[in-house]
Amino acid sequence: MAEDMDDTEALDAAEQQFVAQLRTPIAVDTDAFDARVMAAVQRERVFGRPDRRARHRVVAAITVAGVALAAVIAFVMIGGGVDRSAPAHPAKVVHSAVSTVRFTLVASGASQVAVAGSFNGWNAKATPLRRIDENTWAADIPLGAGRYVYQFVIDGHRWVPDPQAPRDPGDDFGATNSVVTVAGSGSA
Amino acid sequence: MMSRFVDTIVASLAVAALAVCIGDVAGAQGVALRQLDGRASASLKAQVTSVADSVAHTGLPVAPLVDKALEGISKGADDNRIMIAVRGVANDLGIARGALGPSSDNELAAAVAALRAGSTPAELTRLRKELPGRQLVVPLSVLASLIVDGAPAQSAIVAVVANARQRDDSGLLAYGRSVSHDIAGGVAPLTAITGTQATPNAMSTFKPAFTGGKTAPLPAPPKPKP
């Protein structure tokens, strides 16, 4: 029984010592703690949340870059610095699919024949036909999908429609134009 | 913060896209009008440019105007006559767009031809509604040709719609050539458009002048006679 009493007293002493250790305040280096907190705040400002002035600088830079890009695109599209004025065949339309269309005319006694129309700026000299027999003239012309009007020009001055082609209803200058329509990608 | 960045980037892209659109329209207009350089008088070019500016402002293509002016110049027409023709095309383009709604430049040009052949704006609107989603360049061109050949406009549009539903553009062009061939051969226009429509195989016997495809190379020119 006496031994039991001694054990109980020894345990109480150990418990009290343990509790006393837990209650001992932890030593804190407040200067070092403040320094760590401030360093973390500085890092956050630099990488996470820029100050207002820096933010405005970035916004302004993006805006200026966008406007500059727009100006460059507009300049290029309008044609600044690029000479597009003298294509042999004015680029009326640009299509992915181009078909070769043969124009033929029987013109006895002609010394030269050309074709002029909406595909070549109505230039009576741009697209001459080749003589393929005594009286027959022909030319193969690549055309994109679309509807074109034209006439043949005999000996540089006589405008005649194509007798084999449909007629255009427009008659603004006193002579009926012919029509060629090149199929595109329309489907049934 | 992030939303401001996004807003700024979106605004910049919108400005760039707008510039592209403006540049594209202005560029196309500039290229078209430059074809008048060296061919039109200064006065004529100024007048055409003025009409073209008005037309471009409404979103219509200016190339058909320039084409018409060039045609007149090449055919020796005087400036007054050319400007009457140019203004007529501008007017018809507006009517065509009003009838068809949003359209490609080629569709508008073909629609002008159909109007000049005798179609009404209401008929063009009907064509658009009857053939939704289809490029109408070929249907409009065939319609114009049928009317020019003498077919009544209302019958022609019925025939074009019916055939366009069954054929692609090449088939529809073949139909139009077949009808023209029949009419040239003496068949009454109304009979030709309905008859050919009813018997589409008949057109296989007709060889069109324009194949719209690849052609064999031209033979060498004959040697001059001694």
Question: What this model shows, in words?
Answer:
The complex is a heterodimer of chains A (188) and B (226). With 188 residues, chain A is an alpha+beta fold. Chain A has helices at residues 2-23, 30-48, 52-78, and strands at 98-106, 113-117, 130-131, 136-144, 146-154, 158-160, 178-182. Chain A folds into two domains: 2-78, no CATH class; 98-182, Immunoglobulin-like (Sandwich). Chain A has three helices and seven strands. In chain A, the strands form two sheets. In chain A, strands 2, 5, 6 and 7 form a four-stranded antiparallel β-sheet that branches. Chain A starts with a helix and ends in a 6-residue tail after the last strand. Mean pLDDT of chain B is 83; it is low at 197-215. Chain B has helices at residues 2-34, 42-57, 63-74, 79-100, 105-117, 121-130, 137-148, 153-166, 169-184, 189-198. Chain B has 226 residues and is mostly helical. Chain B folds into two domains: 24-100; 104-210. Chains A and B meet through α3, β1, β3, β4 and β5 of A and α1, α3, α4, α5 and α7 of B.
